[in-house]
Design a protein that fits this description.
This protein has 87 residues and is of the alpha+beta class. The protein is built from two helices and five strands.
């Protein structure tokens, strides 16, 4: 039974991240200066590069996520809100 299928191991998440909900994304293909507009009050729009867009394909309503080691990612709203609560 070397190739037997079974359920993969399950893991719980215990990491902390920094995140902002995305209101909208302004794309500027000519300059490559793309901007995320946060949905949360008190946070200024900030630039993201084309590599981030290509790798993560962020969408309005989802979350821009930064991990402890500085890695930047994107999470759809339902996935993020199911797995994280405000610290």
């Amino acid at each position: 039974m070397k190739n037997a299928q079974r359920e993969m191991p399950k893991y719980d998440c215990h990491k902390q991240v920094w995140a902002l909900k995305i209101e909208s994304i302004n794309y500027d293909t000519e300059s490559g200066q793309n901007t995320i507009i946060p949905a949360d009050d008190g946070y200024a729009p900030f630039e993201i590069d084309t590599n981030y867009l290509d790798a993560h394909k962020p969408q309005s309503g989802g979350y821009y996520v930064v991990y402890k080691d500085g890695y930047k990612s994107y999470s759809p709203a339902a996935v993020f809100e199911d797995g994280y609560s405000l610290a």
